[in-house]
């Protein structure tokens, strides 16, 4: 009895770092972690951005600024149309209409405080101090107004369940989502607005988990209309909602309701372009950059990794590669979709989001390094259920982006966020799990230590050594193939785990044998 009391006291002492934070409930947790997360974002935004002082086209920062310039100076019907006022070869809009509307709102904000930063023609390459400050504030405000509330919505829904009584889990999970190093680096360092589409996606997931399928459908449509890469999640949303609808009293009616709601949402967003077929096609043609090839730079997916041996771009035409990549993506999505059609569940839905987004990342056409943010989102939402997979995946996701981060001169911010992430990973959290997970915990710790060592060596090599002249991208290729191999392992493991949800009894037997 005395020994048990000592163990409990020891466990309480281990969690004193969370106790002061969680004793007042979810609002205190979220406000405290949220304010710290905003401070971290501000600190990262003080570093360089994509294409800083690098004419003639600069980088993603200039692309976002140019879209604000175009949307605030031209009529909505000309935003996607090539003309003397809108040269699409210079950072033409290549995202859906909701991104254009967001650019218009932010452009109005810049024009009010600093008109020169969005003046038509003359503002190209504008990099004044005030202009950069206002641009950074547009991302911070987007995070605070969309991403943060969506995360709060998810946390409230996810932890408003009888099986989730540990507040230390809630605090740790909130920190893991709001302090995601990859998202902070890309949005507040490199400069993009992924927080908006990912925020809508998190809100959609939370709505569906709380039984509000119609709200979830609308929010996901908004995510899809902000960035077309949100289609990475489409198989999961489609199969889960269809699987639930087919179990209703009137399945056809439920499916029709969802279909009409989706069409209605798209119609509202696309309304300025629905006056003619040509106008719609002008927008659609900008959303699919097939002319860029099946991959750019060194991205850790199948096409780039296998190109070391198979020269896809030389052997196949663009049309053939489109068909091949589409087929591979659909085939790898099917197991996850079938499972959700057969047995839709909340946890299965989260696994399906991870598995479908990984299928797109690994096999779809025109994937960029930054696209790793999409599978990373559901992995983060599953961080408490799958802590080892979350830690393992995030480490390699960061490594896969390291060459891009170096090009943007964000190494200091990268290393600082990596250190912060390691601290969060190793924060003492009392997970409410079964004993059988202890084995995975010990295995995970050993594996993570090995990964950190390998990752450390690769970072040092990339920063301090020069590759052979004959192979100028040798280090990028090594990083890419290492990360690709781990991503494949993660998606295989998560597909198996999703299907094992259908066999809880047998899973228990397997776990008992492992002990």
From TrEMBL:
Q: Give the keywords, sorted.
A: Endoplasmic reticulum, Glycosyltransferase, Membrane, Transferase, Transmembrane, Transmembrane helix
Where does the sequence pass through the membrane? 20-40, 133-158, 170-186, 255-273, 348-365, 372-390, 410-429, 441-462, 474-496
Q: Where found in the cell? A: Endoplasmic reticulum membrane
| Pathway participation | Protein modification; protein glycosylation
Q: What is its main location?
A: endoplasmic reticulum
Query: Which Pfam families does the UniProt entry name for this protein?
Result: Alg6_Alg8
GO terms assigned for molecular function: dolichyl pyrophosphate Man9GlcNAc2 alpha-1,3-glucosyltransferase activity
**Membrane topology value:** Multi-pass membrane protein
Record keyword Transmembrane helix present:
yes
Which EC number(s) does UniProt give?
A: 2.4.1.-
An annotated GO cellular component of this protein is: endoplasmic reticulum membrane
Q: Which domain of life is it from?
A: Eukaryota
Task: Give the similarity note.
Answer: Belongs to the ALG6/ALG8 glucosyltransferase family.
| Designated name of the protein | Alpha-1,3-glucosyltransferase
């Amino acid at each position: 009895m005395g020994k048990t009391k000592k163990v409990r006291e020891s466990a309480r002492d281990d969690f004193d770092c969370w106790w002061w934070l969680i004793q007042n409930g979810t609002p205190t947790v979220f406000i405290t972690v949220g304010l710290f997360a905003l401070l971290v974002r501000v600190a990262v935004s003080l570093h360089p951005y994509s294409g800083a002082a690098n004419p003639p086209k600069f980088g993603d920062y200039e692309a976002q600024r140019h879209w604000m310039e175009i949307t605030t100076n031209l009529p909505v019907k000309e935003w996607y149309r090539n003309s003397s006022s809108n040269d699409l070869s210079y950072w033409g809009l290549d995202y859906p209409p909701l991104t254009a509307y967001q650019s218009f709102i932010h452009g109005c904000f810049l024009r009010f405080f600093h008109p020169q930063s969005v003046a038509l023609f003359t503002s190209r390459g504008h990099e004044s101090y005030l202009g950069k400050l206002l641009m950074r504030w547009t991302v911070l405000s987007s995070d605070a107004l969309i991403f943060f509330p969506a995360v709060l919505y998810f946390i409230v829904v996810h932890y408003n369940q009888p099986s989730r009584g540990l507040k230390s889990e809630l605090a740790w999970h909130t920190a893991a989502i709001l302090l995601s190093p990859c998202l902070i680096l890309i949005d507040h360092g490199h400069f993009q607005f992924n927080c908006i589409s990912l925020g809508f996606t998190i809100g959609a997931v939370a709505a569906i988990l709380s039984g509000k399928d119609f709200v979830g459908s609308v929010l996901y449509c908004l995510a899809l209309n902000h960035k077309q890469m949100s289609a990475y999640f489409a198989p999961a949303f489609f199969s889960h909602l269809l699987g639930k609808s087919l179990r209703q009293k009137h399945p056809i009616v439920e499916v029709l309701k969802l279909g009409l709601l989706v069409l209605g949402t798209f119609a509202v967003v696309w309304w300025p372009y629905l006056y003619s077929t040509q106008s719609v096609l002008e927008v659609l043609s900008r959303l699919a950059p097939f002319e860029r090839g099946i991959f750019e730079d060194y991205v850790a997916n199948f096409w780039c990794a296998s190109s070391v041996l198979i020269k896809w771009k030389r052997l196949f035409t663009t049309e053939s590669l489109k068909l091949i990549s589409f087929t591979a993506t659909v085939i790898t999505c099917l197991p996850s979709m079938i499972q959700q059609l057969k047995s839709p569940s909340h946890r299965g839905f989260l696994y399906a989001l991870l598995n479908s987004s990984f299928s797109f990342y690994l096999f779809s056409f025109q994937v960029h390094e930054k696209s790793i943010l999409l599978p990373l989102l559901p992995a983060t939402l599953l961080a408490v259920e799958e802590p080892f997979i979350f830690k393992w995946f995030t480490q390699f996701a960061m490594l896969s982006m390291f060459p891009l981060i170096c090009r943007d001169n964000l190494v200091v911010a990268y290393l600082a966020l990596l250190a912060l992430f390691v601290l969060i990973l190793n924060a003492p959290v009392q997970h409410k799990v079964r004993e059988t997970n202890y084995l995975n915990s010990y295995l995970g710790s050993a594996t993570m230590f090995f990964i950190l060592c390998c990752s450390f060596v690769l970072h040092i090599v990339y920063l301090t050594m020069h590759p052979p002249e004959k192979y100028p991208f040798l280090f990028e290729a090594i990083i890419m193939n290492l990360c690709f191999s781990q991503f494949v392992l993660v998606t295989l493991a998560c597909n198996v785990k999703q299907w094992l949800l259908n066999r809880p009894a047998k899973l228990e037997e397997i776990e008992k044998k492992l002990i």
